[in-house]
Model the fold of this input.
Amino acid sequence: MSAPQLDSLTVGDVVAEREFSLTRDSLVRYAGASGDFNPIHYRDDVAASVGLPGVLAHGMLTMGFAVQPVVDWVGDPAGIVDYQVKFTRPVVVDPESGAAVTVTAKIGALTETTARVDLTVTFDGATVLGKAQAVVKLG
Amino acid sequence: MSVNPELQGRVFAPAPPYLVGREKVREFARAVFATSPISLDPDAARAAGHADVVAPPTFPVVIQEHTLAQLLGEPDAGIDFSRVVHGDQRFTYSRPIVAGDELTATLTVTSVKTLGPHAMVTASSEMLDASGAHVVTAVSTLVVRGGE
Done:
């Protein structure tokens, strides 16, 4: 796959779309990989005791996978030079049905060497990340 | 207990160096649903011009966990971990993280703001490689909810 060319891009172009299916297994796997063992991400009783509607995905898990469609579009994770998000709503992961999270990546701004890709990340009909922006260096 | 406003501007001692392992990068990549062979396959990474597998963009959170533990463990910080919510996060790279890198992270509390009973603490973890060159800065804002 060849890297996208800056001069072929226009602000507003949708460059990637993907749906991610999270399960409780995904959360346990991410806990181990990241070292974040906060029990609100795997224990229903603890989540309930602090007033949450259920076990939540780690915000950093959502941030972590939301950029993957951009990585695949660029062709190399080294192409992402800046990435930021605000965590605005939780993703509740049902023990049986899990959670489906969709990501749409759109060109938000262009410079002579970079593209800013704006991510819309949606769960259960509402966005869960705010100001989710990845800056990609392009040749 | 409330967050100590004098934390603002505090610079912590560098955390012990973190050696980025190939299998850790692959484990983390799988956990964030990465499919790029450059994060998973050393041969593909080398073919793309990298010394080894390249960490996914959010990998520095693994190292940031260690620096934030320093902050939460600071005796006079006044941060109750059970009341902390992650507000926002940013990673700004000078170069990608590659397996084999040894990174040293230094935490600075860049701002402490109070909003009614709540506090927002912004902490920046600057990560340098073994030669002292900047690799990435991870900036995290923690929202500390006030007690009832």
Summary: Chain B touches chain A at residues 24, 27-28, 30-36, 38-39, 48, 50, 54-58, 61-62, 65, 82, 85-93, 95-96 (CB under 8 Å).
